[in-house]
Write a structure and sequence with these properties.
- With 712 residues, the protein is of the alpha/beta class.
- The chain has 4 domains: 66 residues; 105 residues, Beta Barrel (OB fold (Dihydrolipoamide Acetyltransferase, E2P)); 172 residues, Rossmann fold; 162 residues, P-loop containing nucleotide triphosphate hydrolases (Rossmann fold, 3-Layer(aba) Sandwich).
- Helices cover 37% and strands 19% of the residues.
- The protein has 25 helices and 23 strands.
- It has a 9-stranded mixed beta sheet. A 6-stranded parallel beta sheet has the order 18-23-22-19-21-20, with helices on both faces.
- Strand 4 and strand 5 form a beta hairpin.
- Helix 8 packs across helix 9, helix 9 crosses helix 23 and helix 21 packs antiparallel against helix 22.
- The longest helix is centred in the N-terminal third of the chain and has 31 residues.
- It is globular, with a radius of gyration of 30 Å.
- It binds adenosine-5'-diphosphate and magnesium ion.
- The site of adenosine-5'-diphosphate (ADP) has 18 residues, from helix 12.
């Protein structure tokens, strides 16, 4: 049997099983071999019920006698309860906050429970044990690689899906191994690498991960797969870098005096981190090798000022700047802040979004900007008369051509796809022989190991310092009974002249039929409620993505100028919006947002020396959700939060490409700085010796078939 044979051609499958395989994208025998277990069960752990003792961890296999939802004791916590029996006795099991499990525990079925055994009033019970369907085979006999002298007999447990149980995977994968299918696979990792890092070869690693004799073997195997994944990511990034760096960019020089004058032109003294970043950028721009730099800084760290400095240097050299941002609101905001920065320099600035084009200054009033037609804007951009253009992704449309684009700035770069990022670097200049320098910016807090991996193609500047006088945001999780207290505190802020945001997860009311499923607040109705009942003496505004562009701009302008006191919004304000006078933010249904997103949202009120407050409204009782929200109340910086986030992940399935296009096993590796650095070094060596990987066709093939990494 060969690894590329079809699974359907070699195993008898029910329609449900076929559907499940399709869903998991498992087509060939090879795919099946790469379906990795999520954990292992110890055969030795399994006990008879009569032998259970309170205070121990144990596993049993038994039949479900009965099961149902219940409310626990006095506290009325929803829970599931079941009674399990084997030949020696019966034992109760309870699952707090997981009443839904009751439905899954069908009386009469065989299950395996593992977890801690407790006792209450002399009666033993399992609390929150893991449940898995009982294996239908006897482990030690069917584990073909089992060694009776090894006490460690481990059984692989696989992530399950409707139609395919862990036992199904176990049985079929063991079968493939016993037929030697894995021996026909060629290892993409060069021998020298395996030796240097003491990694098992591919066929050995597959045996160790599916049919291990001892736990350390499973760890070696995982290490191997993790290394391979990180190496592939690094190779991919490095290759992109080599291609980009092979182009030629116009040199943008700045004299020392000129740079000094620029730094002095800001209305505030720059932080040391901002100065350092600007100097690094000026150094890159002076070369004809295109800059490929990522400016990473927490929300509110002042990235816009750094971008403005880079734009300034570029324009002074007679070249153009394209500044791409993810939302119309942000484009408008940056347009206005650039006008402030550049007004004294007599420079034309353009704005292009899906809905309108504007130009500063207006012919009639030199202090104002004005609407112009798209055709007119494109003409002036092509002739170099508007050297700075700020816009949304409309900037990358074919029609937008610059005279000689010197610098492309991408703000909140994680919001753009790889293709969009590449388009702004290509075919944007009538001077076809050059590429622009690239400055990418992100506030997504990324731990160093992750940055080295995902952004291996970019040089890194970090703003690790906030402008002086910022106080940490006081963040609290607010349960429904504490809402009024939170509103009281916000009214105090409003009375002191400050402003507030209220973020809702949705725009409109949900479909009435589904209202029970999703009881999250909608921005439209919440704004009415807040205006009428909660903040009647203040002006409440509303902004969301379905609003007409002009209306959106008007609301944002009114909020900026302080005429609107409370702005109810969807996550359209998530990135970049800068209204320093806003000091309180309420996030409705906070558990529905990702951690990074919540941090971005609370960054909206982290833009001045005033004390700021973030209220995470949530009615969740789910422990994982609460733990995540708690991380947010504890982490002061995005970086701390990212580290916590990374450590809250893990476990789960090893296969399946999840967040960011990296599998869980890859994520595990990314927590290991030594491994990341080793992979980075090896990727560099491999490509230095053989830029097209001609001598490593398998690596090349794997590279071509990798899912794209996306970072949102
Ligand atoms: P982000 O890094 O999130 O894009 P911004 O560039 O929007 O942050 O800056 C956040 C706020 O901090 C803005 O109001 C900006 O004017 C202000 N700011 C930036 N740099 C400084 C500084 N060095 N000193 C004081 N305020 C600053
Ligand atoms: Mg910003």
């Amino acid at each position: 049997m060969q690894p590329d044979y079809l699974i359907t051609g070699h195993f008898r499958l029910t329609p449900d099983q076929k559907k499940a395989l399709t869903r998991l994208n498992l087509v060939t025998l090879r795919d099946l071999l790469f379906y990795l277990p999520s954990r292992y069960a110890h055969q030795g752990e399994i006990r008879s019920i009569v032998d259970l003792r309170a205070g121990e961890k144990a596993a049993i296999v038994g039949r479900v006698e009965k099961a149902g939802p219940k409310k626990a004791y006095r506290r009325q916590i929803p829970m599931a309860e079941a009674v399990i029996e084997d030949d020696t006795g019966k034992v109760k099991a309870v699952w707090f906050h997981q009443a839904y499990l009751a439905k899954k525990l069908v009386p009469g079925t065989l299950v395996q429970l593992s977890g801690s055994v407790n006792s209450r009033h002399g009666e033993l019970y399992f609390s929150n044990p893991d449940i898995s369907p009982a294996p239908t085979y006897s482990f030690s006999k069917q584990t073909i690689f089992a060694n009776p002298n090894q006490p460690d007999n481990l059984v692989a447990i696989y992530p399950e899906t409707r139609g395919l149980s862990s036992g199904w995977f176990y049985y079929h994968i063991q079968k493939l191994l016993s037929l030697g299918v894995h021996k026909h696979l060629t290892d993409p990792l060069p021998d020298a690498l395996l030796k240097r890092y003491h990694l098992p070869a591919l066929d050995t690693a597959l045996v160790w991960i599916h049919a291990p004799q001892k736990l350390p073997d499973t760890q070696s195997a995982r290490k191997r797969f993790a290394f391979e994944e990180v190496l592939l990511i690094q190779l991919d990034r490095r290759q992109q870098r080599v291609v980009y760096k092979a182009g030629r960019a116009p040199a943008i020089t700045s004299s020392k005096a000129n740079l000094k004058e620029l730094l002095a032109s800001f209305p505030f003294p720059l932080t040391r981190a901002q100065e350092r970043a600007i100097k690094q950028i000026a150094g890159d721009l002076a070369e004809t090798e295109p800059m490929a730099r990522l400016l990473e800084g927490d929300v509110g760290s002042g990235k816009t000022a750094v971008a403005a400095a880079a734009a300034h240097l570029t324009v002074k050299t007679g070249l153009e700047v394209a500044y791409m941002v993810p939302t119309e609101i942000l484009a408008r905001q940056h347009f206005e802040s650039f006008i402030q920065n550049f007004a004294h320099l007599n420079i034309n600035i353009g704005l292009i979004t899906g809905s309108e084009c504007r130009k500063f200054p207006s012919k009639i009033n030199r202090l104002e900007h004005t609407h112009i037609s798209r055709t007119q804007l494109l003409k002036w951009v092509a002739s170099g008369d508007i050297p700075i253009v700020i816009g949304t992704h409309t900037l990358i449309q074919k029609a937008v051509i610059f005279k000689k684009l010197g610098l492309a700035i991408i703000d909140e770069q994680h919001r753009f796809g790889v293709m969009q990022r590449q388009k702004i670097l290509k075919e944007k200049s009538t001077a076809a022989d050059t590429v622009p320098h690239l400055l990418s910016m992100t506030a997504t807090p990324i731990p160093r190991t992750l940055a080295l991996t995902i952004f291996g193609d970019l040089d890194l500047s970090v703003l690790d310092e906030l402008p002086p006088g910022r106080q940490t945001i006081k963040t609290a999780i607010v349960s429904p009974d504490k809402r009024e207290e939170a509103y009281d505190q916000i009214r105090q802020e409003l009375a002191a002249g400050r402003q507030a945001y209220v973020i809702c997860p949705r725009i409109d009311e949900p479909d009435p039929d589904k209202a029970s499923a999703l009881q999250t607040k909608s921005a439209v109705s919440e704004s009415r409620r807040l205006q009428t009942y909660v903040f009647p003496t203040y002006r409440v505004g509303l902004v969301h993505s379905k609003l007409a562009p002009m209306a959106k701009a008007q609301v944002m302008a009114d909020f900026s100028s302080g005429q609107i006191n409370v702005l109810v919004a969807t996550s359209v304000v998530e990135v970049g919006v800068n209204v320093p006078n806003a000091t309180a933010i309420v996030i409705e249904g906070a558990q529905a947002f990702g951690l990074a997103q919540l941090h971005q949202l609370r960054g909206r009120v982290f833009r001045s020396h005033h004390q700021a407050y973030c209220y995470l409204f949530s009615d969740t009782t789910n422990t994982t959700s609460l733990r995540r929200l708690k991380a947010l109340t504890e982490a002061k910086t995005g970086f701390e939060l990212a580290e916590m986030d990374l450590s809250l992940r893990g476990g789960g399935s090893l296969t399946g490409v999840k967040q960011w296009g990296i599998s869980d096993i890859g994520m595990e590796a990314i927590k290991n700085i030594k491994m990341v650095e080793a992979a980075r070094l090896e990727a560099q060596n491999l490509l230095d010796q053989d830029p097209n990987l001609k001598t490593h066709p398998l690596l090349k093939e794997r590279l071509a078939n990798r899912p794209a990494i996306h970072f949102e």
